[in-house]
């Protein structure tokens, strides 16, 4: 399997193997594999505390894994020689609580990294921001501040901000959990649009209907381990493991 | 008490505190003191807040030995009475060969005190910016320094403005302590006019001038707070 990482055209865009992470004495990830093929949408499900967020954060080293390997598009993310700031440009991240910069306009939220990391001119960055805003359906919000937007709008800006850097993959950490039910649809519509554009995504989420509709693979995580994975059909309709069955029964209520 | 007595008490009060002749005689000199107070005040505010900001940013980097030194400095200068610092610098330091002009001593002392308080205020602001802001910024490839500069510090500054303006005003008012080491600021000049004229009117003028000097600062701080609302209503 390790030879796959060295191959010129990797089968997996993201290949995390045996990832371990502890906080103090609590082992949150106990050796997790997460394999994502290019252009696919992978759903991470599992109870809170199962390690979904930590796994996503290990994938761009916002959390430093204690062990395992993470290869992103042939780049060993855990190697000390890897420029992690450069690598992170390739890995978009969307957060449960949006984490927009409250002191900056929507436009500047999107262009900050374009200007400071990607080195784009302000004019080019603004043009790129306009393009992204159109893509998430908020073309007239460039001058607004985050506090002036609804949660669903803020999350679409969050997606636009990560998408603007043209990442190879976008990691979404419960992108709709903080939203009122009537706002979830607008965000999922954007996600579906990204999928249609062939953008690789890993989404930690409990939107099961959406997962059944859009996910290429569902990974069930519990207690820091992958318990079961497969197509959305298999995992949701024909779960093999008792823990999976129990979890699905809980979230259906 | 007769009406005449009451009148004469009132007259004595006016003669002592609101004496037009004395005011005319010493007015210009005390006004010049206001110039010294304003200049020294600006110097204290700019250097104090600037240094405090720099120290807080430095502390955010998280080098343990540096942070230890910052905390020692901050805790000492927050506990010392400004007058004690002024007296040590002015009367103590010449004994080890460091002789500083009184105005410089005043500026350095109050500047250091304000820097200490400002550092704590900015630091509190930095630590109260939600962790998600760091995560979001770093996830887009911004470096630690860029995140601090473009994302964290602007928010920390906003959180710090109300306590900072209060602190800056209360420390700058201590410029009056300069009169103890012969700085010709408002109170120093009012004091000497008081001794020369044996009349308290110069003190009234001094008090009035302090109000005139500091009210704009109070108003400016309110404007500053308003300008930092970022689309909130």
TrEMBL record, chain A:
Keyword Cell membrane: yes
Keyword entries, A-Z: Amino-acid transport, ATP-binding, Cell membrane, Membrane, Nucleotide-binding, Transport
Main location: membrane
Annotated localization: Cell membrane
One GO cellular component term: plasma membrane
Pfam family, one: ABC_tran
Topological relation to the membrane, as annotated: Peripheral membrane protein
Role of this protein: Involved in beta-(1-->2)glucan export. Transmembrane domains (TMD) form a pore in the inner membrane and the ATP-binding domain (NBD) is responsible for energy generation.
Protein family (similarity comment): Belongs to the ABC transporter superfamily.
Protein's recorded name: Amino acid ABC transporter ATP-binding protein
Species the sequence originates in: Tardiphaga robiniae
